[in-house]
Amino acid sequence: MAKKYWLVKSEPSAFSIDDLVKSKNKTTHWDGVRNYQARNFMRDEMKKGDLVLFYHSNANPTAVVGYCEVVKEGYPDFTAFDPEDKHYDPKSNMGKPTWMMVDIKLKKKFKNPVTLAEIKENQKLQKMRLVQRGNRLSVMPVEEKEFNEILKMAGV
Q: CATH topology for 5-154?
């Protein structure tokens, strides 16, 4: 299987790259995704060893702030079953879970985040899903050349 590349979005007020830095083993489960297409990516396509850009959305500025590795493939998102959790889904069933998550581990926090404005200005990134009109998924595939260009822009 060829390695795949991804971008995950999180609002820093909910879970930031600094929260990931502080997590045990710099690892977390990527829970709370409640979009079917994003869920399908995590359930069906994200594999151990894939690399992931970590993007701060709804931030000033919005930016790719680091990258991670998938360390555990898709499994049921337990937050969907917890009535006390903000991601609770009363229709989700433990026997046939609706929502999935993966575990990611921080590889590198960027000293120089790559802003959305910089990404939009880069001719090599014009076809990146992140900059396409109407593409608001919290989990999306990234081309290897796009991933490498972001790392280059970050000085990694």
A: ph1033 like fold (3.10.590)
